[in-house]
Task: structure prediction
Amino acid sequence: MVGTRGVPAHYGGFETCIEEVGARLADRGHDVVVYCRRASEDDDDDRLATHRGMRLVHLPAMRSRTLETLSHTGASVAHLVRHPTDVALVFNAANAPYLPLLRARRIPVATHVDGLEWKRAKWGETGQNYYRRAEALAVRFSDALIADAVGIQDYYTERFGVETSLITYGAPVVEGGGDPLRLAEVGLEPGGYHLVVARFEPENHVDVIVEGYSASRARKPLVVVGSAPYSDAYTQRVRSLADDRVTFLGGVWDQDLLDQLYAGSHTYLHGHSVGGTNPSLLRAIGASAAVTAFDVSFNREVLESAGAYWRTADDVRAVVEGTEDDPAGTALRGVLAADRAKLYDWDLVADGYEELCQRLALLRATAGARS
Result:
């Protein structure tokens, strides 16, 4: 498994997917190797040789927004071609320039293409052009493509005329409506706040949420979890739109606390728009949170009738006020969300990866026999 920060998972959907799927495949008797991005010589994770049955390879990366992923994947692929495996799972189409090396080494590869990265404002024109070209390379040099949402499948069919394997993520189940003791650690109580969990990036619409909330007559505070390591200007914009009812918690790396924040929220506002099936949204529905979401196909695919939808700050104002005016209806949407979460099961996700890897490994064995 190549192309991410690795495990233990502390950041992002790819890392969570690798941890949950990799651990299950290891439990089933497969030899799973995960390439991990070295954080620092003092990080305890960097000294782990194994994690939940997976073997870990730690390699460095350049500390740069544009080069961090590519530099680490380059080092990982250089190691991988010297230590070939039956199948390589490459996460993120941005890593596609390295795929010809795996093809030359006759290592079957499935590329998880993620969302529509070229739509992310942070990359600018050069970065967006790079991602478009990387998508084409992924199509050309992958033995299989993985999409986590029907909308991503449709994009690759329409743009490239190729099929993708639909394998979503799992929704972890959190029961109990929020632990009062854990929530008290950050000055909150169950059902007493609206919640946002997102990196501060334009396509996640944190500014729209904060602006709409601040214009509302909401009585419950808005709690914002997240940060933007490469975007001070956007962070300043978000904060400038907030009134004194908005609390910024920054990054919350304690997963139990984060789960309790989801479970204890009156509503969860989800602004992601370009990333396919989003793990934050799945965590929210797994915690029975009542979700209001940016109106885009990826979010509707997950929520269907369990969600309420918005696009503008005025829409946010209206839906926030509506949820407080109708607590019974809001609670019902939380129940419907929990029902939707049952469709996103990590065991079933692992089944999909196992089947795909076995199919690709057979290709390798067949090619080896022919040669």
Observations:
- The chain has a mean pLDDT of 92.
